[in-house]
Amino acid sequence: MSNVLNKQLTKKQAQLFDYLNKFEQKNNYSPALSNMADHFNVSIPTIHQHVDYLERKGYLIKEKGVKYSIKVLKRMSDIGSLPTQEKNISSIKHGELPINKIICGDAVKVMEKMPDNSIDLTVTSPPYDELRDYKGYSFDFENIAKQLFRVTKKGGIVVWVVGDKIKKGNKTLTSFKQALYFQQVGFNVHDVMIYRKKNTPFMRSNAYTNCFEFMFVLSKDSPKTFNPLKVKTVRQGKEMLPFNKGADGVNKKIMGELKPEKTMTNIWEYAVGYGGSTSDRLAFDHPAIFPEKLAEDHILSWTKEDDIIFDPMCGSGTTCKMATLNKRRYIGCDISQEYVELAKKRLKTVSNNFS
Asked: Is 99 exposed, middle or buried (0-12, 13-18, 19+ CB in 10 A)?
């Protein structure tokens, strides 16, 4: 069996595969998703994503909707050791911006080489609360926050897309702790927006279905650019409109005009999964992508053409791809060489890339 294929597994995926092997050999049947989630102390959706990935890569098969139906097709001995992660951060000169580049390296170290007040907009989603294994690397939130403030231009924006882990019925509220820390380092919390998922699979037996993440819009001073996205109004044109309602509760009316469109609310809805987040199948080689339209909507809202868009944890490259499609410059970095190569592949599919 090819070692090239085997090295596509992360540390956590390899651990899960090992657990499946041993469980099946001992019990002659496979564990349920809930068994795996309890064993690794993670959520069922996280386990589901890892199992789906193992199935796509040919390590196992499972029957949809049937418990205990996983069948391991490959042995643990076939996996081998995980690849080391190359860094090309040394190619960045201190004080220079790697425009339209994807850099492999630690986000803090990459930003340390970037000049002050150089980024117009950051759109990113961190690996919060260890809901996803990220190649075994740690997440240095506080230093990332400090460096983001330093490199962001006056009037620039950081969009921080984040949620919270539910552990034993208790939400961590990591999202709000991070927002408060961003305030400590100097950012204004300009808005707290909601990213609502139209088709979430996550269900809880004793609570309502969790279907959203926060989008903290953090500004360095007052935003220098705001291009509000619009939606059509239900009613439009001239009609009698109420005004100056008095203490008697009687509406007075005057002829007025309802506008054909209005500014969107700060709750944005997106379908997720294939055809929702993206129709680019390459993207799903990353375990945690956000919708392309989400990145695009923020890029259009907070920047102008030729502005510089940054994603310090760019993963599959969604932010960089949408920056390119909308005639903005981008900088992406990720600590995983595998994801850097994935992002580069996705950007190659974009026809109007420019320097």
From this structure: exposed
